[in-house]
Design goal:
The complex is a heterodimer of chains A (247) and B (192).
Chain A lengths: L5 H11 L5 H14 L3 H17 L11 H7 L20 H10 L2 H12 L4 H8 L13 E4 L8 E6 L6 E6 L8 E9 L2 E8 L6 E5 L8 E8 L12 E4 L5
Antiparallel strand pairs in A: 1-2, 2-3, 3-6, 4-5, 4-7, 7-8
Chain B lengths: L8 H10 L4 H23 L2 H17 L11 H19 L1 H8 L2 H7 L5 H6 L2 H14 L2 H13 L3 H8 L3 H21 L3
The chains are: A alpha+beta (247), B mainly alpha (192).
Chain lengths: 247, 192
């Protein structure tokens, strides 16, 4: 456990103001990792985020178009959420994806397939999250897709049954997305990116059910987004996968 | 008559009601914070119509995904402003050149704009919050305040500030930390 918080405090102060350069973002990620589940770090981060948010109140409020409320309320809220078609995410070329996939270890493929055999159970997700192995007979109707990314060692896979709504996404080795950030999954359907939800990893592990129409999508992508879970991607894909290429 | 203390528990209650699709709860949050959100977005992106888009995107996210707010991570108002700030800075960094074209004329226009939303925030007790934050900023040494404002309001990174001001990067970093520590200390002392 680390006792010196001077560096992470300096980084978190700038991060709260949105002023970190890319190299310092990487340093912050390393510091977070080194400090682990650090209560003091959490306290510093929350305190600075709160402070930064309050700086906005030094400004004189500006009038907002009242019709904006109705435009927003005309959209389905959380109680009946559904996803809206949005702008496309440009993923890597298919041949690049194939090349990356070929380079993946067979062990991971095996783990993916085995885990996905009972992927719709929480038991599998929990086992994978703890780094355990799962031995089971895969159903022939289930399909598995592994994501690829050139700048990450993270491993992410999706299991689903064609013709059946929903899928399970799980992965490990994901970097902390950063303060106020999450990972967002996008289904690419005829060039449009449709959000399939946001998730934050715990100790690098994610596992969640995706309520998305897998059958109508041609590919998928994961981006790093604000915790607001925006309705369209604002950053390039970290991981992506083509759906037609099934294991 | 004392100010109504909207922030805090009432905000969290409104967020909880949003989970059930309560439109009145959304209107409450919107009226309380959209004007400040607009001011923040406009200060960063320098263009009113872009600021409106940012505010709409942020509040749309609140409406669609209120579960993104985690009460243990701070107040609703700071979470909202953090979201707006992130969207605005992201836009600025993507459209740097576009922003610079408008930079010269807008700040003055902002100062000259009438405070149409004051009657709204008056009812909600936010003038005290604004005064407290302004006082806290005013108490900062000028060099610390300048760094914080360039970073937060102009969307500049620490290295960009160092480059533009000629101040060593290490100095920018230390001023950021000292300024934020001081702001945090003062504002936590006037926690609403």
């Amino acid at each position: 456990m680390m006792g010196d918080h001077s560096l992470i405090e300096e980084l978190l102060a700038a991060d709260a103001l949105g002023g970190l350069d890319d190299d310092d973002k990487a340093r912050l990620a390393r510091e977070r990792s080194a400090h682990g589940a650090c209560e003091e770090c959490r306290s510093i981060e929350i305190g600075f985020a709160e402070t930064a948010g309050r700086i906005a109140f030094s400004l004189t409020p500006q009038p907002v178009d009242d019709s904006m409320i109705e435009r927003i309320l005309s959209q389905p809220g959380a109680h009946r959420a559904r996803q809206e078609p949005i702008a496309a995410v440009a993923g890597p070329p298919a041949d690049e994806l194939s090349e990356r996939r070929a380079g993946r270890s067979r062990a991971w493929m095996g783990l993916t397939a085995a885990a996905a055999a009972i992927a719709l159970t929480v038991v599998v997700i929990g086992s994978l999250g703890r780094g355990g192995t799962v031995a089971a007979q895969a159903s022939t109707s289930q399909r598995f897709v592994e994501f690829a990314g050139s700048h990450t060692d993270a491993r992410l896979a999706m299991a689903f049954t064609p013709g059946t709504p929903g899928a399970v996404l799980w992965g490990s080795g994901l970097d902390d997305p950063g303060a106020g950030q999450v990972y967002e999954l996008w289904m690419i359907d005829d060039g449009e990116a449709i959000s399939a939800g946001c998730v934050s990893p715990t100790d690098g592990v994610v596992a969640f059910r995706v309520d998305a129409r897998i059958d109508t999508s041609q590919s998928m992508a994961v981006t790093n987004e604000s915790s607001a879970c925006p309705s369209e991607p604002t950053s390039p894909p970290i991981l992506s996968a083509d759906l037609p290429t099934l294991l | 008559m004392g100010a109504i203390d909207l922030p805090g528990k009432r905000d969290r209650d409104l967020m909880a009601r949003l989970h059930g699709g309560d439109e009145d709860a959304f209107r409450g949050l919107f009226h309380a914070y959209a004007p400040t959100a607009k001011a923040l977005a406009q200060r960063v992106v320098r263009q009113s119509h872009l600021a409106e888009e940012i505010v709409q995107e942020a509040f749309m996210a609140v409406w669609k995904n209120p579960g993104a707010y985690e009460s243990e991570r701070g107040s609703v108002r700071s979470w909202l402003m953090g979201m707006v700030h992130h969207l605005a800075v992201d836009l600025v960094r993507r459209e740097e050149a576009h922003r610079r074209r408008a930079e010269a004329s807008i700040p003055q226009a902002l100062e000259e704009q009438a405070d149409h939303a004051d009657e709204v925030v008056q009812q909600l007790g936010l003038p005290e919050e604004r005064r407290a934050v302004r006082d806290a900023l005013a108490e900062l040494p000028l060099e610390q305040r300048a760094v914080l404002e360039m970073m937060y309001f102009d969307g500049l990174s620490q290295s960009q500030i160092a480059e533009r001001t000629g101040i060593p990067l290490g100095t920018v970093k230390s001023r950021t930390l000292l300024g934020m520590r001081r702001m945090r200390g003062v504002l936590e002392g006037v926690e609403r």
